[in-house]
Design goal:
Blueprint lengths: L1 E10 L3 H11 L3 E2 L3 E3 L4 E7 L4 E7 L7 H6 L4 E9 L2 H10 L11 E2 L5 E5 L8 E6 L1
Parallel strand pairs: 1-5, 6-9
Antiparallel strand pairs: 1-6, 2-4, 3-4, 4-5, 7-8, 8-9
């Protein structure tokens, strides 16, 4: 069911500092910041040959990553995103297996302009999982 690893998301308290680390220290190409109000974050993507790193900064006082950053003030890995061919079929299969889909269970459009869903970390070895339709 799972396709390739689309990205590893890292929550950061300061997006500009995170970008500087990846651009200057690691020499990577980083996209322009992109506000995602529906998800409560501003994101950039670090382009790697085999995947991407997504840096996330809270957007607004109700951002879902604020609580994560309160527990991890320096930031840290927030979630993994895997590609799936059919997000609705993947959702239905996972729900049949007992997995919990976060939110109302319906896909929303993610930062890449494609449908995404998030799965409860308690069902996946303590890791928040995002599925993105490829």
């Amino acid at each position: 069911m799972l396709g390739r690893l689309n990205h590893v998301a890292i929550a950061v308290p300061d997006l500009a500092k995170g970008v500087e680390v990846y651009r200057s220290m690691l020499g990577t190409k980083v996209s322009a910041p992109q506000a995602e109000p529906a998800h409560g974050v501003t994101v950039v993507f670090v382009e790697l040959p085999n995947t991407k790193i997504e840096l996330l900064e809270p957007l607004g006082d109700t951002s879902p990553i604020i609580a994560f950053l309160e527990k991890n003030p320096s930031g840290g890995i927030h979630h993994l995103c895997y590609e799936v061919a059919d997000i609705l079929a993947a959702r239905d299969h996972l729900k049949e297996q007992g997995a919990r889909v976060l939110g109302d269970g319906n896909p929303r459009i993610g930062a890449h302009g494609k449908p995404v869903l998030f799965l409860h970390p308690k069902d996946f070895c303590g890791t928040l999982v995002e599925l993105e339709q490829a």
